[in-house]
Design goal:
The longest helix is centred in the middle third of the chain and has 20 residues, at 198-217. This protein is an alpha+beta fold and 376 residues long. 31% of the residues lie in helices and 24% in strands. The strands form 5 sheets. It has a 6-stranded mixed sheet with strand order 1-2-6-3-7-17, with helices on both faces. Bound molecules: zinc ion (ZN).
Length: 376
């Protein structure tokens, strides 16, 4: 059953730059048939972008959230040896885009929900399925903006089923995208003395930010032993400037990303970057815009969900995920997410992404146990 569900989900090419609506409707139909109270929540600003909320058991009681994203990353330019949107079996591997990240978890969650007697649920079982996680957790951010936790409290236990190979993680860094505009003054290229070259200003900014990145790397946090690289990573990722080779450019844009650690203050980091740019000695002005941000996740040690999951998988303590998830945004609803799911992150986003069939079945078993433990 779980393999058929995965096959169905993989057949929707739900790449983040396309509408998620067809897959969202398909998943919502499945939950409807199971008797869940199901809502497809459209993003008012982006046509075709939907979150799916499906609830069973008494609403507002402290059961369990299972959450995953429905979108996948593109396949163009990757050396796939089969159709990425048709599930292919090779030995024990089930190959297809999203099998690991993270339609395998969605299929396992739905399969586990089918095994549960809905009438026996004493506490709420809530599925939160999001869009555009892969391009900045946009669906969960929209959900968090509109959700009123006072009016609609959610269970305190939440599993974000990203592919961790069944390892339990309780924290991860966030990711903030900035755009830095550099303003100079245009001139004919025969008289550069009459202008201020904005590309040169951007170059100064790149070196300045590089020095800041090195400084941050040299001052790691001592209070996060779980995090492998406990400093704020900072990267200048894109640069756009100029219109013609014979014009001194008056405008240039730098795209800069940084990864705040759990507990870091994003606003303070943005201020620090702005201070560095203001300190540049030159004729340019710099404007920093925050484009979007994924919040870091920090769930305290010792939640009941953590104890259950660690016991199920025989892990001593939970760790830190090396990637950002919807968890930071969902924490704003008043829940305490843990990142835990089948499949391996090493094969995600790559050609011939796969999940082991045995892991899929194990996920169904674990989720069924978890639902019973939390909700009945
Ligand atoms: Zn993912």
């Amino acid at each position: 059953m779980v393999v058929e569900l995965l096959e169905e989900f993989v057949s929707y090419p739900s790449v983040s730059d396309r509408p998620i609506a067809p897959l969202a409707e398909c998943i919502a139909d499945h939950f409807d048939h199971l008797g869940f109270h199901t809502e497809v929540v459209a993003d008012p600003h982006q046509p075709g972008k939907h979150n799916v909320i499906a609830s069973a058991g008494p609403m507002g009681t402290d059961g369990l959230i299972l959450s995953g994203h429905m979108d996948v990353v593109p396949t163009e330019g990757q050396p796939w040896t089969c159709d990425p949107f048709a599930l292919t079996r090779r030995g024990e591997r089930l190959i297809g885009r999203g099998t690991a990240d993270m339609k395998g978890f969605l299929a396992a969650g739905l399969a586990a929900a089918r095994l549960i007697d809905r009438g026996s649920l004493q506490k709420e079982l809530l599925f939160i399925l999001t869009y555009d996680e892969e391009v900045g957790c946009l669906g969960s951010a929209e959900l968090a903006r509109r959700w009123n936790p006072q009016r609609r409290p959610v269970p305190s236990a939440c599993v974000i089923g990203e592919p961790t190979g069944f390892e339990v993680h309780r924290m991860h860094a966030g990711h903030t995208a900035l755009s830095v505009e550099v303003f100079g003054a245009a001139a004919h290229s025969s008289r550069p003395d009459l202008g201020h070259n904005a590309i040169e200003g951007a170059a100064e900014a790149v070196f300045r930010l590089r020095a800041l990145a090195d400084h941050l790397r040299g001052t790691p946090r001592g209070d996060l032993p779980e995090v492998e690289r406990p400093w704020v990573a900072l990267n200048a990722g894109c640069i756009h400037g100029g219109t013609a080779v014979n014009i001194v450019p008056d405008h240039c844009t730098l795209e800069v990303g940084f990864r705040p650690l759990p507990g870091d203050d994003e606003a303070m980091l943005i201020e620090r970057i702005s201070d560095e740019l203001r300190a540049i000695d030159g004729p340019w002005t710099f404007k920093v815009h925050r484009k979007h941000g994924i919040r870091p996740l920090l769930t305290p040690v010792g939640t009941p969900l953590e104890k259950l999951l660690l016991r199920y998988v025989g892990q001593a303590r939970s760790g830190a995920a090396g990637f950002a998830t919807d968890g930071g945004n969902l924490a704003a609803l008043g829940t305490a997410p843990l990142v835990f799911g089948p499949g391996r992150i090493e094969v995600a986003h790559r050609a011939d992404e796969w999940i082991a069939e045995a892991d899929l079945h194990r996920a169904v078993d674990l989720l069924e146990r978890l639902i019973i433990a939390r909700c009945s």
